[in-house]
Amino acid sequence: MPPIRDKFTIHSKAVATIFAIAGPIVIGAGCIVEEGAILVNRRKEVMRIGDDNLFEIGCRVESPTIGNFNTISARARVHHTVRISSYCVVGAACLVVPTEDEILDEYTVIYGPAAERRTWSGRGKVQEADLRRKHAEYLKEMLPKFNRLRRGDGM
Prior knowledge:
The structure is a single chain. The chain is an alpha/beta fold. It contains one helix and 17 strands. The chain is globular and about 45 Å long.
């Protein structure tokens, strides 16, 4: 289990996978990990995930550092040679695999089938943060209502 600085949410029906293969993974406060998301640390250094990040359904992230308030969209893949700053968005089904180590600048948006890039102006980031907090509150309230614990054999 990764060290948790504060609470984060993993979908109850999630088969979220967290692989600390070579080194530990530290997950920050307020992160949401949806079903099918895979977080992998292939490096010996600590994989640090900042606060209030959203990992959507079926994404795979191997980035050694992730800042705050990032969104990794459904089925997106981020290679271990990419370091993500804060307020970045990797769009649905985008593949980010640079040949050399790369640091994504703050407010970078990656989108489309060719993984094109642009820079977000930052307008609306307060609303985005509020929406993210409401999403986390909703999940914390609703998931326990519908999560059915199953007893295994021998319990």
